[in-house]
Amino acid sequence: MRVKVACVGGGPAGLYLSILLKLQDPSHEVTVHERNPEGSTYGWGVTYWRGLLDRLHLHDPESARALGEHSVSWSEGVAHIGDRTVRHTGDQGFGIGRHRLLEILAARARSLGVRLEYAHEVTADRLPDADLVVAADGVRSALRTRYADHFGTEVTAGRNSYIWLGTTKVFDAFTFGFVETDHGWIWCYGYGYGPGRGTCVVECAPGTRTGLGLDRADEAEGLVLLEKLFADVLDGHRLIGRSPADGSAPWLTFRTLTNRTWYRGNLVLVGDAAHTTHYSIGAGTTLALEDAIALAGALRDLPTLPQALARYERERKAALLSAQSAARYSAQWYENLPRYLRLPPEQMFALLGQRHSPLLPHLPPRLYHRLDRAAGRLAPLRRFKRWLGPKMARAAHTRAGAGRDG
């Protein structure tokens, strides 16, 4: 059955959904509406992992090949903790420039007959005439905001401040840098994404940012200070603000967004319009593309739109549970970073890799490290650890809820 689909938002979720729909049935009329001019996207590199690339090859080998060819990869993690460096081998990760990712997806969509309308803003009061309207317009989605009561939108702000920067440093591994200052610890995450370019995300507690004067410094002064703090990590390379034209680089507080339901009539949410997970787990692009895959599959398999949207919501909400849990514990780990930084660097880096565990916040770090090492050798202890972590997490959640009610 030929359907007319309007994707509002030209990010990864909207573009990839348009590709999948045209591959399923070339007669579908699919339009992507993007409010910004073509090529004007901001941002540096985005990360993804081998599992996503394998799934993309199953659904559209052509765009997956282009994505892989234009990505850089790593299989090691490096942590600079004060004057010590620790290196571990891990899963294969990838980085690609957000601009290049969107170029690849837009070109593939056009080749399949998708209509791309740039510099065209869709307002919530005047939705496109279509059988299905897809809100792929990001965390500040105007379409979702218009019906926030229906969707049951909730936004929870994190505690730490962060800033998303580019750099001329090309990292050969996913790199962490932890620097102690007179005002507390400040740290960065660095990874490559293209020739001569890397991404550097800097994070710290609000008091550290204030103490260092980063809340009062202009963009240029702030970048110079951060370059000095992370000189060893950057090897003397410079940092670049979000917009090279004006050096703009705003400090932000991460907002975790959830929705009780993901559709209203023929309007459905995908990507950051539907959910966000803390950047420290590097899952945002992966989850957006997986939303597109699930929605396209539901539209293909089920005879009516309500049935398809219900299955999509049910499947993706269930699939997101583990990522949302990991993101929540990862953010909390960084918010309580001083708890772990007095450990020997090898132990601290090991617990950095375990930061998604619901058990870790409830045990002394050294005890957890010993338990984790022992669990690697003893199957009964591994099973006990898997049982105990969620049990303690539920108990803590219950106590927190009782405190809010009191």
Overview of the molecule:
It is a single chain. With 406 residues, the chain is an alpha/beta fold. The protein is 43% helix and 23% strand. The chain is built from 14 helices and 16 strands. The termini are far apart. The model is unreliable at 395-406 (pLDDT under 50).
The count of strands amounts to: 16
**Main sheet record:** 8 strands, mixed
Low-confidence stretches: 395-406
Radius of gyration over alpha carbons? Answer: 22 Å
Q: What would you call the structural class?
A: alpha/beta
Order of helices and strands: EHEEHHEEHEEHHEEEEEHHHEEEEHHHHH
Number of helices: 14
Helix content: 40-55%
Topology overview:
Blueprint lengths: L3 E5 L3 H13 L4 E5 L11 E5 H10 L1 H9 L2 E10 L2 E14 H14 L3 E3 L14 E4 L6 H5 L1 H4 L2 E4 L3 E7 L6 E8 L2 E11 L2 E8 L1 H7 L6 H11 L1 H4 L4 E2 L14 E4 L4 E2 L2 E3 L14 H18 L3 H31 L9 H9 L11 H11 L3 H27 L1
Parallel strand pairs: 1-2, 1-7, 2-6, 4-10, 7-16
Antiparallel strand pairs: 3-5, 4-5, 8-14, 9-12, 9-13, 10-11, 11-12, 15-16
